[in-house]
Design goal:
Residues 14-149, 154-298 form the MARVEL domain. With 302 residues, this protein is mostly helical. Helix content is 72%, strand content 0%.
Length: 302
């Protein structure tokens, strides 16, 4: 049973505040995007299915968030609402920018043949609204991020937002790993896979504890443990950033250049290159995370 706090039953700020307006635009642009694709634009293969999943998933969760905040139902949920909304906004930003790049890349063309001018126009319009979806989610992240010296939810801090990005980048690495990357060829590259997997799992656990609001129940200091883990993740990714390129692109173990007979889209060398690039991306993210973690600890003690 909901408790009567003596205030209004409906929270109009959920739809009239800058964040609320951004969420309403997310719903409007998201609905328009997948409606254009489903009606006439069309989609196919795993790329198109992924884009449709992104737009419908983000639309459904955003509707859920606005409904809960407008009716105060979020007070009945046993989660940290601020951490949940901040984490979702960051995740939706990453997913929507990926879909906004993939859909026009694979489905939009300037000419009408062979799909027809009407289908082409629908796909172009869907791509434009897909870009708008990304923009309004990025605006929410900007509006809800922690300001310097502000006491706020962990997932709204730079360190918390970076956790979402780190997990997302790890998913890209896993996708390249399963795409015939030949990682099992050497024990050294298997070590790199273990590094990616371990850091991904721990990062997801950190996010899960923050979103569920269970950090206070832990028998060890959560904040200090996260900083220690981040330092360890930096060291692990340094090892992967050294080992993976050596065993994939050194002439003794792999190939410095892309083989000429390697098929586009099904080439182990391409997957190895993607993994190498995003290994360095995640290493940089963990280094920045470690630097901001120190800042968070200092501010929280003021």
């Amino acid at each position: 049973m909901m408790e009567n706090t003596g205030g209004p039953y409906l929270n109009t700020a959920a739809v009239t505040s800058p964040v609320g307006i951004a969420r309403l635009l997310q719903i409007m642009f998201g609905c328009t995007t997948f409606s254009l694709v489903a009606h006439q634009g069309g989609f196919s293969a795993a790329y198109g299915t992924f884009c449709m999943f992104v737009w419908t998933f983000c639309f459904a969760v955003t509707v859920f968030i606005i409904t809960c905040e407008f009716t105060h139902l979020h007070s009945c949920l046993s989660i940290s609402w601020g951490n949940f909304t901040a984490a979702f906004a960051m995740l939706a930003t990453l997913m929507s920018v990926t879909a906004a790049v993939i859909y026009p890349l694979y489905f939009v063309q300037l000419g009408c043949y062979p799909i027809g001018c009407e289908v082409r126009d629908f796909r172009i319009a869907a791509s434009v609204f897909a870009g708008l979806v990304f923009i309004v989610y990025a605006v929410e992240v900007f509006l809800t991020r922690a300001k310097p010296g502000q006491v706020t939810s962990y997932m709204a801090t730079v360190s918390g937002l970076l956790k979402i990005v780190q997990a997302f980048v790890a998913c890209i690495i896993f996708g390249a790993l399963v795409n015939d990357s030949q990682y099992s060829k050497y024990v050294a590259t298997q070590w790199c896979v273990a590094v990616y997997s371990f850091c991904f799992v721990v990062t997801v656990v950190v996010v899960a504890f923050s979103v569920t609001g269970r950090t206070a129940l832990l028998w060890f200091p959560f904040e200090r443990s996260v900083v220690v883990y981040t330092f360890g993740a930096v060291l692990l990714y340094v090892s992967a950033a050294v080992i993976w390129p050596v065993f994939c692109f050194d002439s003794k173990y792999g190939s410095p250049q892309r083989p000429g007979l390697c098929a586009r889209g099904r080439c182990p060398w391409d997957s190895q290159l993607v993994i190498a690039i995003f290994t360095y991306v995640n290493l940089l993210l963990y280094v920045v995370d470690l630097a901001y973690s120190q800042r968070i600890r200092f501010v929280s003690h003021l």
